[in-house]
Design goal:
The protein is of the alpha+beta class. The chain has six helices and 16 strands. The strands form five sheets. It has a six-stranded mixed sheet. A four-stranded antiparallel sheet has the order 6-5-9-15, with no helix packed on it. A hairpin with a 5-residue loop joins strand 11 and strand 12. The longest helix is centred in the first third of the chain and has 20 residues. It is globular and about 60 Å long. The model has no long low-confidence stretch (mean pLDDT 95).
């Protein structure tokens, strides 16, 4: 029988708790739910708040079927918040907004990665953060991503912007920058300008175009996730990888000192200690008044 749990006054059916989702580590669904409830909830909810969520579902683990969904799935409880989101065809749809622990646990029970846009519900297409996804092409790794991140940090700082880093939870690194609310198209144009400049100044290390033939041994500075329709893995989400890796905030010292890829791999079991030591390293992204204006040109 599926157990029923009460979370903040909401009754939830949490299913298949003994199911192994990550065979490489033997991590069960119950352990995944415990990670979200006991370790990540406080920090993760701050980054999910007021942002419509896209789910990458992997109900049978990373080796099983994986599929993206933006629409509320069948059976979504009436108490789970949704928000209107414009679509490219000018029609309006609704997406989940995870704003409390009960909604988080309901969503986590579906076995998902959490992905969110750079804007908030109510102001679609008006970004309050900028993102760069630094994606290494083999044989490059996160070590090369760190080199690029340091260049971008300096360049952003010259424009009065402060960058914060996190692992992608996969092979690369994400940089996030708090902004004054700005049209996504303008943010995208600025981010593209910096990506092009990075390639010009670091031609042996950086590409800004996704063409596969250009990418071996280099870091793609992917600016495209600033588009209003795009999303990025939310901080603290687990990823559908061989192990329960986390898109984990990192310090600039860790980025500066990274010499091997394994130094910036963090699993669910690492996060309680990191949160205890550092708190939420990305907390400043959510501080009122922290955002700065986007320069007119890159």
């Amino acid at each position: 029988m599926t157990p029923i749990t009460e979370v903040e006054g909401r009754r939830l059916r949490l299913s298949n708790l003994d199911k192994v989702l990550y065979p490489a580590t033997g991590t069960t669904k119950g352990e995944v739910l415990h990670y979200y409830a006991a370790t990540a909830a406080g920090a993760l909810l701050a980054h999910l708040r007021d942002r419509p969520v896209s789910f990458l579902r992997y109900p049978d683990g990373p080796d099983g079927q994986r599929f993206f969904t933006k629409n509320p799935p069948p059976g979504t409880p009436s108490w789970v918040r949704t928000a209107p989101v414009p679509h490219h065809d000018n029609e309006e749809a609704r997406q989940i907004v995870v704003g409390d622990l009960a909604s988080l646990m309901w969503a986590a029970n579906l076995v998902v990665e959490f992905h969110t846009p750079q804007w908030r519900a109510g102001t679609p297409g008006v970004a309050d953060r900028l993102v760069f996804d630094l994606d290494p092409g083999t044989p490059a790794s996160v070590v090369e991503c760190c080199e690029v991140a340091l260049w971008l940090r300096e360049r952003l700082s010259a424009d009065g912007l402060e960058a914060f880093g996190k692992t992608s939870g996969s092979k690369g690194l994400h940089l996030l920058v708090p902004l004054e609310p700005t049209e996504s198209a303008r943010v995208s144009a600025y981010a593209k300008g910096l990506a092009v400049q990075a390639e010009l100044e670091l031609p042996d290390l950086v590409v800004h175009r996704m063409k596969k033939a250009l990418r071996p041994g280099k870091v793609l500075v992917d600016f495209s996730q600033n588009a209003a329709a795009k999303t990025t893995a939310t901080p603290y989400t687990l990823r559908a990888r061989a192990e329960p890796s986390v898109s984990a905030p990192v310090t600039w010292a860790e980025i500066e000192e990274c010499r091997s890829p394994g130094e910036l791999v963090f699993l669910a079991g690492d996060m309680a200690e990191r949160l205890g030591r550092y708190g939420d390293l990305l907390g400043p992204l959510n501080e009122p008044g922290r955002g700065r204006p986007v320069p007119d040109t890159a």
